[in-house]
Amino acid sequence: MSDEVRQARQDLMRVGLLGDVRTDGVPDLIVRSWRRSISVSAEGANPAQRFIEIDTDSILRRAADPVLDRWQSHLVDTGTALFLSDRGGAIVARRASDGSARRLLDRVHAAEGFDYSEDAIGTNGLGTSMVEKRALLISGSQHYNDALATLACAAAPVYTPSGSVIGSISLGGPIQSANPLMLSLTREIGNQIEERLRSSARPQDLALAMSFTRYTNSQRPTVVMDSESILANTPGLPYIDVTSHVMLWELLNSHNWASSGTLNLQLDGTSVEVIARRVLDGPRAHFVLHFADRAHFGNASADLTAKAEVQTHAAIEPKAVRAVLVVEGPPGSGRSTIAQSLQGDRQSDNGFEHVVIDADPVDWSAVHRLLGGGTDVLLRRAENLDDADADQLTTLVNQHRLAAATGQRSGTLGITADRDRCSPAILGVLDEISYAASTQPLASTPERIPRLVKQVLDRVDPTGRHTISPAALQSFVQWSWPGNMSELVATLSALVTQVTSSVVERRHLPRHLQQAPPRRRLSLLETAERDAIIKALEAASGNKSEAAELLGMGRTTLYRKLRQLGLDTGENSL
Description:
Largest sheet: 5 strands, antiparallel
């Protein structure tokens, strides 16, 4: 049977997703997983290659470690091992008492830190159980990766109290050890981990789960959220991500709810309507959001920020006019990023070739050659041009427009400039460019920050290894960014280099970001309280109980003030 299964898998890999092969005797879920593995070009021959640093103090590890330790003692001499993965598929814990079993597992990189997601190595217990959201048994050649063909594993997803998958648990070993009882044992071990997660959950998490159950049905797009957590039903998923979560929270939390417990919103640039309800059940308020009119909905997070981020002065322009664009604003305010997004609107296949204008003379002939060859060019810092350059800039703009109008060129000429620092002659040239956008310092447009963080992170972390937690993103929104985009890029670049875990949390941020005050203006008393709490936490090395004693207040009072004054890390939320 194993040879037949292997042959069916190889036939499917050979003919591809559109081919038709016989898979008699292979469970449907295995065939589905094989097809997914083919679609993402998962590794099919070599052991897992992707390795990441793991967080040994995560919520999942703290809940699972005692359970794994207890079951390890029960499984001595069985030849099996226990594995725990995080929601991304990385193995974060392994328990194997038998030395020969450890050596076998090490040869296929079934060890802590290696990526066993379905996207990485195809069909396997840890990864596939999370995708299928069910317990399953995978044996021998049912694995997509040939390196795992000598193994068998039972696995089950692990759920948080709110119902989201936080990881998976697997019991595996040599194929000779395969037994239907492995599936029952795996389910029991997973249940025990979930029970420990429930017992350690915050009351706020349970309140969110209760509201989710109360206000959600299977058809209406619904999201339940507080500052740290999101629960969404399947129809609600397209409407929410980390970026839109942070911006919606800032909007809803600053609204005056005294007159009504509900609020009607319309997302900027769309026909999507949101009905928000404030819920006071639980330790603190949270919100239930219902979304409507998805037919015209694009990207919620982009639409929430687009209006403030780019103020275009021309609607649909002729091709020749759109061939030249200018982005105005102070240095460091994201002018190049805005230009890149406007270039993306034109569906350009390549990024800009950047020409930075500084003390050296501009090589105008080189710019002409780039544009003539179809390259998109971005002239950065036009405020550094002299009046003597105005004729050259005028010639460049007019020639490129004419070439674009006659179909001789397809590229874009972008220009960034600070109008307040431009010479009169250069301003005269810029005034003739009608396809323009403007940007402002980050301090005056905090709603731009979540989207910019994502764009910059994609650039400085091209492998996509790091993500920003909601609590950390809120700190980014609260900070005033006196250095504008330059400071934002430098901060994210440093975090990508320094943080070894996949999620950048608030505790990883520089201290000034962790302690950034809320955007709302604090009273003098609140400012004094905030400073005192910061000093107490520093004196107590972050221990909140000790800090409360130093401040002469109860722990409950301290926790409440931490939330009110924007000092609550919120990293322990499930």
